[in-house]
Design a protein that fits this description.
Blueprint: H1 9-29, H2 46-58, E1 67-69, H3 77-83, E2 88-90, E3 106-109, H4 117-128, E4 132-137, E5 156-160, E6 182-187, E7 203-206, H5 209-214, H6 226-238
Parallel strand pairs: 1-2, 1-3, 3-4
Antiparallel strand pairs: 4-6, 5-6, 5-7
């Protein structure tokens, strides 16, 4: 009788990891009465809120009675982390798309990055006619759905000099920065909004698409498809080396 092949240690670990991820996804989905994606459950790090807090303050966010609204509920950390900077925050545990938004004065959100969430929150922000700050991938600025950079201070971006590491309930991607640059996009403000704003050492203000390119937040050119990238990489690795003279 042929002896059954035993799985390798790597195969056992991979199987256990996949099973754990499946169980974790199911457990996480049960926390919400609406459909969610496992890879979207990333909380905004506190440093990102520290970067945007002077902007929210200038919008009037610390004035008594002013409400900052985040429509995307993850684990409720938004109220705690943003509240540390003196803001009154509404972050209800409800489906943003099927529920009525509460009254608010400023929109501040880090939406899910999958699907069409980015397009939808930008459309909502523009339609609200309220000041807004959205933490999004920098590449959104190159998309057709992005608002126009219409003049000084109308729409601008805050790019951190480093990257942001987002928190996941199950530690997925823990302590790892995103593979793209996440920046705060700000809109719904007066043309002179940035005048006299004190600078932050670890943040760069970008007033245009060209500024984002200069700050290396985006490439500024269309990324080659995978096949072209593979060919270029092959050429680099197989190119003959020059012999020393």
């Amino acid at each position: 009788m042929k002896k059954k092949k035993q799985p390798t240690k790597k195969e056992v670990v991979t199987k256990k990891t996949k099973k754990k991820a499946t169980e974790s996804a199911g457990e996480l989905a049960e926390r919400y009465p609406w459909k969610t994606e496992y890879g979207d459950h990333f909380e905004t790090p506190e440093i990102a809120y520290r970067h945007i807090s002077p902007i929210l303050e200038r919008m009037g966010g610390t004035v008594g009675g002013t409400v900052v609204y985040d429509p995307y509920y993850c684990r409720g950390a938004t109220k705690r982390r943003l509240g540390k900077f003196g803001f009154t925050v509404k972050n209800p545990k409800q489906d943003f798309y099927t529920s009525e938004a509460p009254g608010f004065d400023i929109l501040c959100a880090n939406p899910p990055y999958s699907g069409t969430h980015k397009e939808k929150i930008l459309a909502f922000a523009e339609a609200s006619r309220k000041p807004w700050a959205l933490l999004l991938p920098a590449y959104c600025a190159e998309k057709s759905y992005f608002p126009r950079w219409s003049g000084k201070g109308r729409v601008f971006a805050l790019k951190p000099r480093g990257g942001y590491a987002f928190d996941h309930p199950h530690g997925a991607g823990k302590d790892k920065e995103t593979p793209f640059q996440a920046v705060w996009f700000v809109g719904g403000v007066a043309p002179d909004f940035l005048d006299g704003l004190p600078p932050q050492d670890d943040v760069v203000i970008c007033r245009s698409l060209e500024d984002l390119v200069a700050a290396r937040a985006i490439r500024g050119t269309k990324r080659p498809n995978p096949r072209t990238r593979k060919k270029r990489q092959l050429r680099r690795t197989t190119a003959p080396k020059e012999s020393p003279s």
